[in-house]
Each structure stands twice: as structure tokens, then as C-alpha cells.
# Entry
Amino acid sequence: MKKFITAALMFLMALQLGAQSKEVQALLKAYDKAKQEISDAKRATKPVGWIRYAKALTSAYSFPTNNLWIGLSSLESKVVLKDQRALSTEYQNIQGEQFEIVKYEDKDLYYNADGRLSFWIITKPLIKDVDMLEEAYKAYIKATELDTRGSSKADIQEGLTLVANNFINDAMAAYTLGNYKDASVKFEKSFVTASHPALNVIDTTIVYYVGLTALMDQDYSRAVKFFDKCIEMDFESAGDTYANLAEAYKQMGDMEKSKELLSLGFTKYPNSQSILVALINVYLESNDDPNKVLEFIQRAQQNEPNNPSLYYAEGNVLKNLGKFEDALRLYEKSIETDANFFFGYFQMGQAYYDRAVDIQTAASDELDDAKYLKMVEELDLMLEKAITPFEKSFELVNDQEIRSVVVEYLKNIYFRLRTKSPEYEAAYEKYNQMLQGQ
# Structure
């Protein structure tokens, strides 16, 4: 009985593979025939031949994923692909998102956490060593040049739309996988295809995506080129285009150009949080007028009152201005806004610690014994106040390198205070052993 079932299954698979093979053969035959047609000097002068060639390419390109669409459930996909057998299934975390990857002979299907088809990768194209979409685009453009009467306009526009959409699908897949270089190239190809006069569909959002993925790929000159193009086309994305363009210039080392763009963007979009945050960062990094930085930070706080990092940033500016108590108040505000905000606790501990170091430096030059002893008491008080925020920050952080920094601070503090109590001495031993064990 078992042998009979196995034989039946093999026969069924053979039938399915045979049916698929016939379809593949038909597509390859159509491609070869169309290619021969455009290679003939006489027949290559007619637009219809180039359209047939382009269609043969796009049909071959789409064959592995025929009848699939983004958002399809995994169960629906199995029904659509009933004649195809999945080779394996694996799970992978990509860019912080969990995917189920179902592998077939010619493609990998990526399902999101909801079990919906998010994107696919064609692993075994029907026609090898040919950029089918690029070739199809060129074929449609050639058909446009030959179609002097416009009789093939509808077919050309339909074909270019299909090519442009396929480029977008490929770009989104590359983006999700973190291949930003490929994503940027594919987004650009989609724009070029759709914006050709034969179709004349201008999608400025796609231009923005070209620049954004170039920025993520750290190709800053390319990012500048396309963000500039966005601004020329009046696509400013509520200020985000200025913020991203300024970031590209900053990464290229042109801080003044970055400030110029952010200031221009700020005048046009005063409520843009991306511009405000970028302004804050660029002024802080260039050690520019601190009052200007405070103005930007406070504006950002009005727009986003529940963002602890903005209170933290203001505290850092005030600390650098020597306003110790005001800085502590802002660090406390960041913690009140988010009880798990590591940086607020850490910076509060560091503020107390730095104050203790300043007092120690001053005490070393003090000749009056009474004043010296008073300064030593204040020094120890600052270190004791640093303990709680440092220990809280140690609880919150998982990064081993940052934990080591916090442990170093705590070890130094408890070493200084270890003779004051057995608890302090035990704490010193604990943190000292932590450092030695790393």
C-alpha cells in the first residue's frame, strides 16, 4: 500500500512538473522568437516586434510569482501555488521584524508576523544573465520611437506601467532586507520608467525614496542629488527633505551647508520635529551658540512634550554652561517623562560625579584646613548622590560596553567611600570583581 501511495505521489508530481515545464518552454519559445524578430533588420523597424519582445521579457520575469500578490495569506498562497512544492521553511529576524521564509525551487516568499506575504525574492529567474526589466524598458522605448502614428500607445503605456511597478516591488524587497544600495537603484529605475514621456507619470515620492535609501546606504553625494531634485519638484515632505539633505551634507563634512538648509527648512516648517532635532544636533556638534540650541530644543519640547531625550538634551546644554542645578532639574524631567530612560539616569549620575571631580581639584589647592574639610564633605556628598542614578542606569542597559562604563564609575565611587560603611566596602568589592571578570 505504501509503495502504491509513493508511486501515485511521484506520478502526480511528474504531471505537475510536466505542466509547468510546458509553460516554461512556451515562455522561452516566445522570448526566442521575439528576440529573432527584432534582430531582423526589416522587421525591427516595426513597433509591434519590440512590444512583443518586451512582453516576452516581462512574462518570463513574472512567471515564478504569477498570481501572487502582496498581502496574500500563507494559506491562500498555498492554494495559488498548489502545483508547486515548498522545499523548506525557516524563520528570520530582519531589521527587527520576524519573517517566515518559505523556499521554492525558483523563489523565496517572505511572510510577516501576521502571516501575510510581505515580499518575495526570485532566486532562479527564467532567463539567466539578462536584466529582464531593464531590457523590457529599453524595448518599450524603442517601440515608442518607431510608433510615429501612436497606434501602439496604449500597449506601450500598459507595458511601462508594469515594468515600473515591478521595479518598485524589487526596491521594496531590497529595502526590507537592508540592501539599501540596490533599493535606491531600483527606485530610480522605477521613476525613470514611469516618468518617460511615453507614460509621463511623475511620482515625486519615488524620487524621495531614491534619496532616502542612498542616505541609508551612506552614498551621500547620491542622496544630495535626489533630495535636491525633490526640492526642485516641490516635494519637501513637510520638512523631512530638508532634514535629510542637511544630514547628507553633514556626513560629507559641510556643517555650514547643513545649518543653512536646516535654517531654511525651519523657516518653512517650524513645527517639523525632524528639522528641529537635526538643528539641535548640528549646533551641539559644532559647539555653536548655546542659546540658539536652547531655543530649538524648547520649541521641539512644545511639539513633543513626551520625548525624554529633548529634556536630556537641554540638560546637557545647561550643564556645559555651568548651570548644574538647572541641568539636574532637566535630567529629572527626562526620567519623569520616561521612568526607563537610561540616558537621564546616566547623565544625572555623571553630573554629580563631574561635580565631585571639580570639587576635588579645587580642594587640592585649598590651604585653609577648615575649608578643605568642608569641601571634602561636599565631594563625598556628590559621589553619594551619584550612586542611585548610576545603579539605576546599570539596571536598564544591556549593552556590555556601556555597562562596563557604568561599573567603572560605581567602582571608583565606592572605592572612595568604602571606609564609611561595610555596605560601601562590599559594593566596591562587587563592582571591582565585575570589572576583573570581563
